């Protein structure tokens, strides 16, 4: 049976750059949006807000849903639904010292990167980059988009 999960994550843009986490897992190093697993009795929006706080120390508000995309990993029998929200920083100063993943060495740091820079990096979910580039230019006026599943 496949491991099924929902991963709420957040796009935060400042001066044309996106807040990303540099992560290191057994499968390699890559960049991710802040986000993570839903805890018991938590909504996807609550998860997104909590994860950003834990991973960056920013207090945010969620403005809208941007993208939905499924990722199906046949090798590891894993099915993940990415829910990508647009967030806005309300307060806080950047740090990633509160995240429990630090103890396991999963998060190496926080960076601000342009979409162009992320195109040349290992970034997940990579399929959002073309839409994200357009949405930044259009100030996120488009409706939420369902992106075809990525199957590996």
Describe it for me?
- The chain has 152 residues and is an alpha/beta fold.
- The chain has three helices and nine strands.
- The strands form two sheets. Strands 2, 3, 4, 7 and 8 form a five-stranded mixed sheet that branches. A four-stranded mixed sheet has the order 1-6-5-9, with helices on one face.
- The protein is globular and about 40 Å long.
- The model has no long low-confidence stretch (mean pLDDT 87).
- Its cofactor is Mg(2+).
CATH topology name: Nucleoside Triphosphate Pyrophosphohydrolase
- The CATH architecture can be named as Alpha-Beta Complex
CATH class: Alpha Beta
- Going by CATH, the homologous superfamily would be Nucleoside Triphosphate Pyrophosphohydrolase
């Amino acid at each position: 049976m496949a491991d099924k999960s929902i991963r709420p994550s957040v796009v935060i843009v400042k001066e044309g750059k996106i807040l990303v986490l540099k992560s290191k897992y057994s499968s390699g190093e890559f960049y991710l949006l802040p986000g993570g697993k839903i805890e018991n009795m938590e909504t996807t929006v609550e998860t997104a807000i909590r994860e950003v706080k834990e991973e960056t120390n920013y207090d945010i508000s969620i403005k809208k849903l941007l993208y939905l995309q499924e990722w199906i990993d046949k090798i590891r029998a894993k099915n993940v639904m990415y829910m990508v929200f647009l967030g806005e920083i309300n307060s806080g100063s950047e740090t990633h010292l509160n995240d429990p993943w630090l103890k396991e060495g999963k998060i190496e740091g926080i960076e601000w990167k342009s979409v162009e820079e992320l195109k040349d990096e290992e970034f997940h979910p990579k399929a959002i980059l073309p839409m994200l580039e357009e949405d930044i230019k259009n100030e996120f006026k488009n409706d939420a988009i369902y992106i075809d599943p990525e199957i590996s």
